[in-house]
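note to self: dont lose this again. the chain is below, predicted strucutre after it. 259 aa total, dont forget to put it in the shared folder this time
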Amino acid sequence: MSKIKNAFQNGKAFIAFLTAGDPSADKTVEYILDMEEAGADLVEIGIPFSDPTAEGVVIQEANIRALKAGMTTDGVFDIVRRVREKSQIPLVFLTYLNPVFHYGYDAFFEKCRELSVDGIIIPDLPFEEKGELAPIAASNGVDLISMISPTSEERIRKIAEDAAGFIYIVSSMGVTGVRSQITTDLSSIVNMVRKVTKIPCAVGFGISTPEQAEKMAAVSDGAIVGSAIVKIIAANGANAGEALKEYVRSMKAGVRAAD
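---
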């Protein structure tokens, strides 16, 4: 069974993202465990891909570094295996349809089940086209996590009614990346979602400061941070552990201030 609900059971959740294999597989394992120690409630693991269309420059460059270092989908699964030897923190993959398709849907999700991967986010999989994938994921205990961006109330309702795990609320249009201000009326989106489901909602895209995390968590069930974490890893490489822990502690404090 998915452990995603555990991330939200003690209050607002802080969800951290990093790219597998940047700067190395060993360091990715270490940094996931460091972030859990510092208070992360769930970790999203990016599977490196050559054309990550939803990502900004920071995460694109992390993908390039990881691929150049030899990271593969099997390598990412091995990272999860090593994390699972020490931790049962909820883990979610963030990837694109192409790597899953080429691995083979059945083989990919069977591997996820074997290693206790709890969910998957696929930004380039339209809601209307999730039909062939969703049953395979579900049969292997993997939540196919829906993303909701600022759009029509009818579409938000449809996506929310069929959601699993948690709902990823996109704070603003465009690609991932740090933003100085987030001006989308997120409370209205969350209210629409809550009319049709009790599944938690977490806000991502652009969050980088404890103040932003508190503001986003105040209108939802948690905050998701990716680019700011990837920037810390890019700046510090194999010595990012302490900086990551300090940053995650501050962001967790911001999220919990919204409780």
